[in-house]
Amino acid sequence: MIFIKVLAIVLSVSAYATPSDAQLFEKKTLSLAAAKKIVAAAEAEAKAKNARVVIAVVDDGGNLLLLQRLDDTQVASVDVGIGKARTAAIFRRPSREFEEQVKNGRIAALSLPGATPLQGGVPILVDGKVIGAIGVSGETPSQDEEIAIAGANAIKEIATAVPSESSGKISYFPKEKVQEAFAKGAVLFDGSSKYMVHTSRRDKAGIAEVHEQDADIIYVQEGSATLVTGGTVVDPKPTTPGEIRGKEITGGETRTITKGDVLIVPAGTPHWFKEVPAPMTYYVVKAR
């Protein structure tokens, strides 16, 4: 009888403690560094549209990671931007879908816990899984969403970048991948706080830049440009920590750079691609 009772206990325990119950799942999470790059991409899109917006990035649980309010943006957009981002994260879909439901007569969508039924919240996806979301508020609904999408799309470059802590592993990039990266201008290698390699493409003049922490080592692969270095940045504005942008540069040294040239721009030095007569591709190694 004792043996039968013990056997029954073992069988009952094993019925609940199956291997599948003990399985642990791994998932990708959104880091602060990645959130900063997403915000930077969204901000660049906002400035291209002359938009004044709040940009909020949250993790997959809707918890705020980063918030940025561009100059002269209405304060009321802060909570709205966070709400849009949180909606896209916890419901795993764009917040626009809830606004459309309300427009189509499903008023019950207004009572969903945690939902902000306004266009402008977009999930951030890696391998088809939501790892966070971005919310934008301040302009028209369509502009808010376009800016949010530009930020969310930045995760594609971040997710495909090669991690720097590879402990002796060689990073190899076949020519096909390099050519593909040059075609769109992308980060080829992300060494985060140490160094990065950009396969850059420029089709037109840019804005003045100052990297307070990073030196740029530039090698021109194809094309040419007029580059201004030094001098004073006109209307300088911080974009992300350690990064300053401006309309142009006054003073400074002007030179034409062309195929085969190498240039080193020390950290803190203003530089500006003033003229680009034809598409130019070039490597940039950012060293910190």
Question: Could you walk me through the main structural features you see in this protein, from its secondary elements to its overall organization?
Answer:
With 288 residues, this protein is an alpha+beta fold. It folds into two domains: 32-160, Haem-degrading domain (Beta-Lactamase); 175-287, Jelly Rolls (Sandwich), CATH 2.60.120. Helix content is 29%, strand content 32%. It has six helices and 17 strands. The protein has a five-stranded antiparallel beta sheet. The chain has a four-stranded antiparallel beta sheet with strand order 2-1-4-3. Helix 2 packs across helix 5 (141-160). The chain starts with a helix and ends with a strand. Residues 1-11 and 13-17 have low confidence and may be disordered.
Q: Outline of this structure?
A:
By secondary structure, the chain is α+β, with helices and mostly antiparallel strands.
Structural key phrases:
288 residues, alpha+beta, Beta-Lactamase, Jelly Rolls, 2 domains, 5-stranded antiparallel beta sheet, 4-stranded antiparallel beta sheet, 6 helices, 17 strands, 32% strand
Number of domains: 2
CATH topology of the largest domain: Beta-Lactamase
Q: Number of DSSP strands?
A: 17
| CATH homologous superfamily assignment of the largest domain | Haem-degrading domain
Topology:
Blueprint: H1 2-16, H2 32-48, E1 54-59, E2 64-69, H3 77-90, H4 96-103, E3 121-126, E4 129-137, H5 141-160, H6 175-184, E5 186-190, E6 195-202, E7 208-211, E8 215-222, E9 224-229, E10 232-233, E11 237-238, E12 243-246, E13 249-250, E14 253-258, E15 262-265, E16 271-275, E17 280-287
Antiparallel strand pairs: 1-2, 1-4, 3-4, 5-6, 6-17, 7-12, 8-15, 8-17, 9-14, 9-16, 10-13, 11-12
Helix pairs in contact: 2-5
